[in-house]
Amino acid sequence: MTLLLLLLTLSWTAPHDDGSIGGAVAAYDFRYAADSTLIASGVSIPTGVPKAPGTLETMSVTLPAGVWFLALRSQDDAGNWSPWSNVIRAQDVLPDTTPPAAITDLRVQEPVP
Ligand SMILES: [Ca+2]
Question: How far away, in angstroms, is 5 Cα from ligand 1 center?
Fold first, then answer.
């Protein structure tokens, strides 16, 4: 039996410490869950140190096969948490099991001498 995993590359823009101004945030809280309403109690995913505000953050995540919802929030150095981000849905890319259609126009193009 093959152990199926879901491999994702995620990205977001690094936020500011104080709303839309200030330096980098201190930490991220990145989670996934089987239900979009359960993100806050979902499984934590380790992230790197937050980058400078406005920088594109990218991260590779490996999850068990299935359908998952993911979101993150950030914390400043005073301990304040941002609201949760938008929630994204990720699922396995199912194997392609649809074959090509049958060719139906096979014919002799010219008489063979
Ligand atoms: Ca702040």
Answer: 37
CA of 74 to the centre of ligand 1 (A): 10
**80 C-alpha to center of ligand 1: Å?**
6
Per-residue pLDDT tens digits for 34-92: 999 999 999 999 999 999 999 999 999 999 888 899 999 999 999 999 999 999 998 87
- Distance (Å) from CA 60 to ligand 1 centroid: 27
**Do 28 and 44 touch, CB atoms closer than 8 A?**
no
Domain assignment of residue 111, yes or no = no
**CB neighbour class for 92 (10 Å; exposed up to 12, middle 13-18, buried from 19):** middle
Residue 22: both structure tokens together: 């200030």
CB 25 within 8 Å of CB 15: yes
The CATH number that applies at residue 10 is 2.60.40.10
Q: Report the C-alpha gap between 74 and 90 in whole angstroms.
A: 21
Residue 13 C-alpha to ligand 1 middle, in angstroms?
17
